[in-house]
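Reviewers of the previous submission asked for a worked example of the structure-prediction workflow described in the proposal, so we include one complete record here. The input consisted solely of the amino acid sequence. No template or homolog information was supplied to the procedure at any stage.
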Amino acid sequence: MKRVSIVLLAAIVAASVTGTIANPIPNSGQVSLQPSKTSCSCANPTPFVIPSLQEWKGSKGDWRLCKATRIVIDPAYANGIPADSKNTFMANPANLQQYAASFQLDIKQVTGLDLQVVISNKPQKDDIYLTLGAAAKDSSLDNEGYILDIDNKGIAIQAVTSRGAFWGTRTLLQMLILADENGYALPQGHARDFPNYGERKFMQDIARKPIPMSDLKEYATLTSFYKFNTLHVHLNDNPGLQVKDLMPDWATKYSGFRLKSENPAFAKYASNDTAYTKQDMRSYQDFVKARGMDMIPEIDTPAHSLCFTKFHPEWSIQNGTARGDWLDLGNQE
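From that input alone, the workflow returned the following structure tokens.
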């Protein structure tokens, strides 16, 4: 796996360790935790991916990724559908074209192949075809569900929403990584897949420890690899001190506030070691959306507010609780 990044290598290592806990508890009794039984012993077994596929019907033979393979986007859904907006609280959710661009970059990183992305309703042999409209065929699919077909002609992912199609590409990406030593040959078969949980969240505290934006994007790539759909970003904090009847020298304690303001009156609150501009955050949001996730930015107050009270000690609670990092909500200023 010489071309695989550190993030994807770590993902595969974690997959090997945690595979047994994938999709642990379904929402209803109609979903089996056991791999789908194939029609005969000669059929392809269920591929190993995380979360594990809900349903798989294996056939015979393989499909192989090659230089001629294209990522083909159905023009009817290239710009997304109204259901995409209903499936997120983020403004301007990513559409099928943007997800295809993310997939294209991932394929190049994993295999070295720079696949062409085209918009067409006529996929050719060896193509990977992305389309929507799965709900019309299967009304029981979750809004992030998808149907994956792999045969000797190529691959088709048909999803309910654009985000669901992206989860289908995550399944393919995991399969390709594990097929590295086999010339990127994937087993032919039919999968029906959907998440057991509507919200699959990851929280990252970037306040107590500075993290470069490049690393944040790596973490977003890793979490989306496992089909997490929500990323919670904790933007300000400081160490907690439990000291009774004694006011520590809070001004000497480390605090982090990771947002830079263009307003000079507020610029001082941003951390000197690492802080992000508005453009940084917009770029980060766009990146996260193109990885299938919503982002929740959190400014933590009234406690955990040393980034503000160290400049304004008069704003903090000044009593026996000795919490100089707490904003005094009774202070009108």
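The longest strand covers residues 55-64. We consider this example representative of the routine output the project will generate in years two and three.
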